[in-house]
Amino acid sequence: MTLSATQEQIISCIDNNATSSQWKDWKWQMRHSIKDLETFEALLDVKLSEKQRKAFGKAAEKFPISITPYYLSLINTEDMENDPVFLQSVPSPLELNIVKGDMSDPLHEDSDSPAPCVTHRYPDRVLLLVSNVCPMYCRHCTRKRKVGDEDTIPKRSAIEQGIRYIRNNPQIRDVLLSGGDPFLLSDDYLDWILSELRKIEHVEIIRIGTRTPVVLPCRITSDLVAILKKHQPVWVNTHFNHSREITQSARNALGMLADGGVPLGNQTVLLSGINDCPRIMKALVHKLVKNRVRPYYLYQCDLSEGLSHFRTPVGKGIEILESLIGHTSGFCVPTYVIDAPGGGGKIPVMPNYLISWSTNKVVLRNYEGVITTYKEPDSYEPTFCDRDCDSCDLLLKLEDADESKAIGIGQLLADDDQTISLVPSSNARHSRRKSGA
Ligand SMILES: *Cc1c(COP(=O)(O)O)cnc(C)c1O
Ligand code: SF4
């Protein structure tokens, strides 16, 4: 594959003797990542506005800047202010605005951490933070407080402690390697982590969250794919936010992973001025699916500090889903989620399709606005469930159903549970009650 004119310009500016095979070497890309204003301007042959130049310096003190030469080469210098690649990688002066309601750790990832490198929020799965550095620091990063801080790169011993926690907690069946970017670890180190996890019998699947297919596609090498293949099932979730990021190099990387049998998903963050448009989002999901990537989540931008200029109203996300559901293939539609401040986890939100209901009918509307009814059965004998699966008439026998105690809304719906309401522990009305009942 030949390099573009911009890539030729950047490579010769970095090193007159560099070759295109060096360009495709991920370690070369990392060594020459752009971290300062002068290099940025020189490599692209542009001049930023005075305000932007200032922001570049100030923002870098708070949260690092690093742009791979490859990602830099995707910037359209003719229209930088509106370019999605520029906006995701170069700080805006607005990044320095901390507004009311911003939080440094809105998702309480640090307090939900029972062991080093582990965030344990959901019953059966954990985040294992194995890296603290990224090839490109996204300006919209939710882990701004942590990522890029070279003093806190997880040590091998800390990762070992995290793995021990997973080993000691048999309910964990799904481990998400995250960070930072796990694919910035060396092949050997990653191979070691995956091998350690694979030795744990109750770990059924491993997931890796990485932005390398977007910002450093040459990191996806045949050696890396061979490692993932060896430890399958390993799912990879990547992070494309705009169809312009799906270049030929990105397509090659995705193709190698898919050919290696790695199931691929994508998480997109809804970003004002970048992808807050139904047409852009439709183009993105179609291009992803064409490249065998399933759109997984669309995230509402969270409340981390310095992200206020990226946030949209929730209605924008609903409008985007409204434009996708029914209008295109079901598997092109991501689940739109708000990651609950305070650590409640991801909460899906959707347009409303159930308009009304009575005792024997529901009224629904479809994507075209057609209103329709679904007639419910005249009689339905619910299968009584007391979670005693061995004596159940249904054919499904779950080996470990005795562990499947219903919680949350599922508990309110369960036949064998007497709970009638769920009340937050700090509820004032309840704490006023005499008996505490
Ligand atoms: C997102 C997330 C997960 C994984 O959630 P899924 O909905 O299974 O993708 C697990 N733990 C934490 C802390 C998360 O933020
Ligand atoms: S949970 Fe167990 S007991 Fe309940 S319906 Fe399912 S199989 Fe039967």
From TrEMBL:
It comes from the Bacteria. The modification N6-(pyridoxal phosphate)lysine is found at residue 346. The keyword Iron-sulfur applies. InterPro entries: Aldolase_TIM, LAM_C_dom, Lys_aminomutase/Glu_NH3_mut, Lysine_aminomutase, rSAM, rSAM_sf. Keywords: 4Fe-4S, Iron, Iron-sulfur, Isomerase, Metal-binding, Pyridoxal phosphate, S-adenosyl-L-methionine. Its cofactor is [4Fe-4S] cluster; pyridoxal 5'-phosphate. Residues 120-331 form the Radical SAM core domain. GO terms for molecular function: 4 iron, 4 sulfur cluster binding; L-lysine 2,3-aminomutase activity; metal ion binding. Its EC number is 5.4.3.2. PROSITE patterns: RADICAL_SAM. It catalyses: L-lysine = (3S)-3,6-diaminohexanoate. [4Fe-4S] cluster binds at residues 134, 138, 141. Pfam families: LAM_C, Radical_SAM. Belongs to the radical SAM superfamily. KamA family. This is L-lysine 2,3-aminomutase.
